[in-house]
Amino acid sequence: MGEGKTLPTYLCRNCENPLALGEDLISKTSGPAFMFSHAMNVVIGPKIERKLITGSYVVADVMCGNCGEKLGWKYVETFHLKQRYKEGMFVIERLKLTKKL
């Protein structure tokens, strides 16, 4: 059995609270943020409608469950069929993260 590549754990840069696993990383090419399929140890704020570059969405802000730092947002609902794959995904700003192998 071959050895697999060790994936990092992504942590809050402010308090080092674990936020996401490398296996949940969907995209590193989302500009100044990463997209994850799952996040942990976070608090999700109320749903709000927001216009983003790719269209209008219902999103919820995501904060660190330990220190309260605003990290990014979660896509709750989209109004465009082509963007539906984003529903349930978490977008976390690169500058708010650090990673540990």
Automatic annotation (TrEMBL):
GO molecular function: metal ion binding
Keyword Transport part of the UniProt annotation: no
Keywords noted in UniProt: Metal-binding, Zinc
Signal peptide (UniProt feature, chain positions): none
The keyword Zinc belongs to this UniProt entry's keyword annotation: yes
Domain called Yippee: residue spans: 8-101
InterPro entries the record matches: Yippee (IPR034751), Yippee/Mis18/Cereblon (IPR004910), Yippee_fam (IPR039058)
Family: Belongs to the yippee family.
Name of the protein described by the UniProt record: Protein yippee-like
